[in-house]
Amino acid sequence: MTEAEVIAAVKVRMADIMPDNQTTVTAQPFIELLVNDCVENFYMMLPINLLPVTSFVSSATTNKYVAMPAGSAVLVNRKQLPADYIRFIEFQCNTWLRSATTLLQQGTPEHYAQYRKYMFGGNTRPKVALVVDNDLGRCIEYYNYDLQVPPVISIATCATRGTLQQIPSNLIDVYSWYVASVVFQSMEEQEASKSAMLRVQEFLQLHQ
Q: Which single residue of 103, 131, 143, 148 has CA 20 to 30 Å from 111?
């Protein structure tokens, strides 16, 4: 949908919530200001199964080998994330028996444990971490045994911010309710904001 169509949908939702003041609420400049800014926060609250998926397996992002101490027997690599990355979905190498769907945080004990042969997840319980690399920026760090031939990434997916026009058609209705809630909050119409957010929560409960 175009930006104008989404704005029109938001105004309809706001008028549904406050029918006695629809002329006032639909004239709010906050609608035009917020309709694009809400995309990222909206995606952050969606369940994984509803997120638009972006693959970065064969994208222009960069791979980087991270040197480990001799004898560690763990091969550490980093895959650069897309510039507009907002949320991790799934990552897998061709030698793994399953994919990794959760992220370790950089600098935690569990993250550092992946550097040790007898403590990292291996092929049966693979782990990946979200790290900030000095050269590449935000990356997925992944681990394998120190093989002669490095494993190949088979799955690398995430959600990216994208644009308002790229929101999937099946999410436009609930997105318009979400924006309506945010706009009402900016207007200090707390009850109206709660009513609009309730519609969002009902949608999410149906799609968990």
A: 148
